[in-house]
TrEMBL record:
PANTHER family: ADENOSYLMETHIONINE-8-AMINO-7-OXONONANOATE AMINOTRANSFERASE. It comes from the Bacteria. It comes from Nocardioides marmorisolisilvae. Pathway: Cofactor biosynthesis; biotin biosynthesis; 7,8-diaminononanoate from 8-amino-7-oxononanoate (SAM route): step 1/1. This is Adenosylmethionine-8-amino-7-oxononanoate aminotransferase. One of its GO terms (cellular component) is cytoplasm. The keyword Transferase applies. Pyridoxal 5'-phosphate binds at G112, S113, D243, P306, T307. The record marks Y14 as: Participates in the substrate recognition with KAPA and in a stacking interaction with the adenine ring of SAM. Catalyzes the transfer of the alpha-amino group from S-adenosyl-L-methionine (SAM) to 7-keto-8-aminopelargonic acid (KAPA) to form 7,8-diaminopelargonic acid (DAPA). It is the only aminotransferase known to utilize SAM as an amino donor. Its EC number is 2.6.1.62. Belongs to the class-III pyridoxal-phosphate-dependent aminotransferase family. BioA subfamily. The modification N6-(pyridoxal phosphate)lysine is found at K272.
């Protein structure tokens, strides 16, 4: 493998081109294992990341491989403008069945970030139908919604990854991050209500990651905060958008994180785990009422159309992935993983560098008192047989749902051991 070419010519996510970091060549991926080249030697390690949370059934999944091969025999792609096809219809049917009651209109997008773009445009158009110009969105600090411009605008403007673009982004309205579960909520609720009411007439929608904020800091917060935000939106004529790209499909323990909050959004964004990590695909699911309002706007239609919208190959694999999810008790599986993460990460409480240990569903997080030494932690975890990708001051895992108790134990021991070795 020509890693020299990679270093000289290929830009990796959130990395420098002129001073690139270390990357590890992958030769194979199977089940929960990645085979990497580490310092010139082949090493098989447990994947603790599900390839950024999407490979929920691991790698080389026979059912998904078969779905891809079968679809290739028919067609790999055809435009969705003026045409349709069975894989899109079948996947749409499954998503409507899985979505919260009342959400039955599906718009396919080609990435999570694009689905958030679409959701925000839907909200704006829905208000435009009534002659209202509501150009602002209400959200909370600590969030992350994607790397394209509209999602960057509702991602934390100071603590997030996109603060350098502040001058280019529309300024939206940010409440403080809700307290963690178990902390008092009253003061936050009062301040958030006051802030919302100050801007109510200009707000198109509330947009949040319910219950668990992902790349903004892996913060777990009280379902009551989600209910408050949804209530404020509905009291003042704004819509509710749930970004469940990271939290959907049982990652936090229930089918949707919003289920645990007892809130149904007006617009739901899904992605990541939708195709089991095989192909990029996302969807925006909304109600007949919102769809009618969008169509009643001056444009008369939803003004968005990605080239690879409803790609047949991705849709076919996504349906097979949802079949696989339905074939076993996924909630029980996630509960088992959660229990293993909780018991395995307990030892981290004894480390001087740890300020918090938290687990929600199949998500385990170690929060440090300083930024993570990413290269050192990565190496230390690899030495213990695990691939992790820390960020900021967090070492975390979102393992595949097929992870065995032994896999989870290996992951937690590697996380705790790596932090102890590098940060103490």
């Amino acid at each position: 493998m020509d890693t020299d070419f990679d270093r000289d010519h290929l830009w990796h996510p959130y990395s420098s081109m002129t001073a690139p970091g270390i990357v590890y060549p992958v030769s194979r991926a199977s089940g929960t294992r990645l085979t990497l080249d580490v310092a010139g030697a082949e090493r098989e390690v447990v994947d603790a990341m599900s390839s950024w949370w999407c490979a929920i059934h691991g790698y080389g999944v026979p059912e998904l491989d078969a779905a891809a091969r079968a679809q290739l025999d028919a067609m790999s792609h055809v435009m969705f403008g003026g045409l349709t096809h069975a894989p899109a219809i079948e996947l749409g049917r499954r998503l409507v069945d899985l979505a919260p009651d009342g959400l039955d209109k599906v718009f396919f997008a080609d990435s999570g970030s694009v689905s958030v773009e679409v959701a925000m445009k839907m909200a704006w158009q829905a208000h435009a139908a009534g002659g209202l110009t509501r150009t602002k969105f209400f959200t909370i600090r600590g969030g992350y919604h994607g790397d394209t411009f509209s999602p960057m605008g509702v991602t934390d403007p100071e603590g997030g990854m996109h603060s350098m673009y502040a001058g280019l982004l529309v300024e939206h309205v940010f409440a403080e991050r809700p307290p963690a579960i178990g902390e008092p909520l009253d003061a936050w609720a009062e301040a958030t209500t006051t802030l919302f009411e100050q801007h109510a007439d200009e707000l198109a929608a509330v947009i949040i990651e319910p219950l668990l904020q992902g790349a903004g800091g892996m913060h777990v917060y009280d379902p009551a905060a989600v209910r408050l935000l949804a209530d404020l939106a509905r009291q003042h004529g704004a819509l509710v958008i749930f970004d469940e790209i990271a939290t959907g499909f049982y990652r936090t323990g229930t089918r949707w994180a919003g289920d645990a909050c007892e809130v149904t959004p007006d617009i739901l964004c899904v992605g990541k785990a939708l195709t089991g990590g095989y192909l990029t695909l996302a969807a925006v699911i909304t109600s007949a009422e919102i769809a009618a309002r969008v169509d009643a706007s001056p444009a008369g239609a939803m003004m968005h159309g990605p080239t690879f919208m409803a790609n047949p190959l991705a849709c076919a694999v996504a349906s097979a992935n949802l079949d696989l999810l339905a074939s076993y008790d996924v909630e029980a599986r996630v509960k088992e993983i959660s229990s293993g993460l909780t018991s395995g990460l307990t030892a981290a409480h004894d480390l001087r560098s740890i300020v918090d240990v938290r687990v929600l569903g199949a998500v385990g997080v170690l929060e440090l008192d300083s930024p993570v030494d990413v290269p050192a932690i990565t190496t230390a975890a690899l030495d213990r047989g695990v691939w992790v990708r820390p960020f900021r001051n967090l070492v975390y895992t979102m393992p595949p749902f097929i992870s065995s108790p032994e896999d989870v134990e290996t992951i937690t021991k590697a996380m705790v051991g790596a932090v102890e070795e590098v940060h103490g």
